[in-house]
Amino acid sequence: xxxxxxxxxxxxxxxxxxxxxxxxxxxxxxxxxxxxxxxxxxxxxxxxxxxxxxxxxxxxxxxxxxxxxxxxxxxxxxxxxxxxxxxxxxxxxxxxxxxxxxxxxxxxxxxxxxxxxxxxxxxxxxxxxxxxxxxxxxxxxxxxxxxxxxxxxxxxxxxxxxxxxxxxxxxxxxxxxxxxxxxxxxxxxxxxxxxxxxxxxxxxxxxxxxxxxxxxxxxxxxxxxxxxxxxxxxxxxxxxxxxxxxxxxxxxxxxxxxxxxxxxxxxxxxxxxxxxxxxxxxxxxxxxx
Length: 289
Ligand code: PDD
What we know:
The protein has helices at residues 21-25, 43-56, 65-77, 121-126, 149-160, 203-214, 226-230, 266-284; strands at 2-4, 7-9, 28-36, 39-40, 84-91, 108-115, 128-134, 165-170, 173-177, 181-186, 189-192, 219-221, 234-239, 243-250, 253-254. By secondary structure, it is an alpha+beta fold. Strands 7, 8, 9, 10, 11, 12, 13, 14 and 15 form a 9-stranded mixed β-sheet that branches. It has a 6-stranded antiparallel β-sheet with strand order 2-1-6-5-3-4. The relative contact order is 0.14. N-(5'-phosphopyridoxyl)-D-alanine (PDD) is lined by residues 32, 151, 176, 179-181, 200, 202-205, 238-241.
């Protein structure tokens, strides 16, 4: 069951105008919210990021927070899986084709859910492959826009080489990956690029930084040079669906040196375990986490 503009229906019955600016221009924003045991994870933070994306593209939020919460809860209860991914999207609506944002349109609001698929036991244990590519996307990657052609092209180049992710560099510095944020470890210190207009402010990124702080694990949020990425002891990607996933082969070379070369490193394993514990704990707590 999905939600479209105030109605719940089977996905086959959902129809939108071919003039919808989401279809014509990619003029819309979205969120992907993981749901564990039928409880949305970090819902307030996802809805705050939705508000930031809407503000950035001058689109009025069609619903107050309480209404979004109700819609997300209805989608969760209308679908069969305990663990889900809720996808929600707001576009500017339908209008005669013209680039400048028209005023007064009725936005299109769409929510759907699918079964949450997190990395397999094999991927968690052995890590995944990635390649490094130039970040040729636009300069407002902080907006969670549905205009994802750049990300799709980069992810496809990675998939062509049997890799799960394209890790992106711009002007000699690490930005993020095609659909996840990136952390590296060098000499026991975790390094993460700071939030800027060049990366999406990941909700999982925030959770991981909280975990690092709470457990006094050495870390620095600062620009990461491409050379540091390429000589890292560990590399992980984070996202709502990937959680914390080790990258163990970069451009077909093992990541790290010594006994852990080409295998998930000790800091990644620790943070992965702490992330799983955190998830389990907040899912047992009474209110939304
Ligand atoms: N992608 N960076 C990019 C470019 C992303 O698309 C995503 C998430 C992230 C991680 O954000 P979060 O931790 O809030 O999931 C970083 C989602 C899952 C997607 O587009 O499907």
